[in-house]
Amino acid sequence: MYSALNNEIKRQLGMVKNGELIEEETRAVDEQGKTFSARSKGSELDYRFIPESNIPPLKIEPKMLKEAKDSILLDFPYLALIEKYKFPPNFTMEILNCKKLEKLIQIYLDIGPPVPFKHFKKWLDELRYLCEKIYINETNYFPPTNIKLLYCFAQIVHLTYTGKLTNLIAIDLMREFAEAGDEDSDYNQLGEEIKELIQNRNLWRITNSQQIDKLVLDAVLDHTPDFIDNMIAQKSKQRSKPFAKLKREIIDRSNKRIAPEDVDNSIWRVVDLSGIEKDFPSLFKD
């Protein structure tokens, strides 16, 4: 409602400034707090947009206005979630109605600045699916209460958004933390501990194109010319079996550190011999 009122005020102010006539109509509101026309009001007589003769004018004294303003709670707890952190109003109400979700959001915001909600929601849905599979015999499994898992989730949201982790690595980490339970730990240091774990295991995403091409080339050279020719012949197909097989091998060889889309691009760079000669000339010297 708060977002709907603000959006409608802005809409009508804009119309007045542009000299447009504000139509008398009924407007509805969507989940994002944006209003849209539902139906026209028709004529004034239809909706009695005329003074009511049986109700005398009401004079509001300044004292009444002051008392009303003083009684209004202006510091609503959810306003920051909507205005500062850009959560949709409907999701904000979910947060306020669920203490476990509120804890998850608190940890997520403590880790770093919020990412676009679409990216956050994608990983929240992934977390929900993971909890559904792992805590199959439990009720009220989501949002989880495992603090380590919540910190892992928060880091993953930020690290995948910035391109530092692949989705496959991120899912594996969340599964590991979900299955490990919630042993005693210094929760204030958990965010950094997760980064250290990623560093120690060398799980950071590989983004260097030459490094990716080298891994792809090694995989290509392990296959017969017929296999590669068959893959090239089916290039027009989006998911040919040879291509999918080679792609899986490369991702496995990289320990899931190369994103699938990067593998897609690299494979076709590598099978183009002119591209290989340019990037890896030493491999083709006699």
Low-confidence segments, given as residue ranges, are 273-286
Number of helices: 15
Overall structural class, as computed from helix and strand content, comes to mainly alpha
What is the CA-based Rg, rounded?
29 Å
Order of helices and strands: HEEHHHHHHHHHHHHHH
Biggest sheet details: 2 strands, antiparallel
| Overall geometry | elongated
What distance lies between the first and last C-alpha atoms, to the nearest angstrom?
74 Å
Beta-strand fraction estimate = under 5%
Helix content: 55-70%
Q: Give the rounded overall mean pLDDT.
A: 83
Order of strands in the sheet with the most strands?
A: 1-2
Describe the structure.
It comes from Meloidogyne enterolobii (Root-knot nematode worm). The structure is a single chain. The protein has 286 residues and is mostly helical. Among the domains are: 1-36, no CATH class; 113-201; 209-275. 59% of the residues lie in helices and 4% in strands. It is built from 15 helices and two strands. The protein has a two-stranded antiparallel ribbon with strand order 1-2. Strand 1 and strand 2 form a beta hairpin.
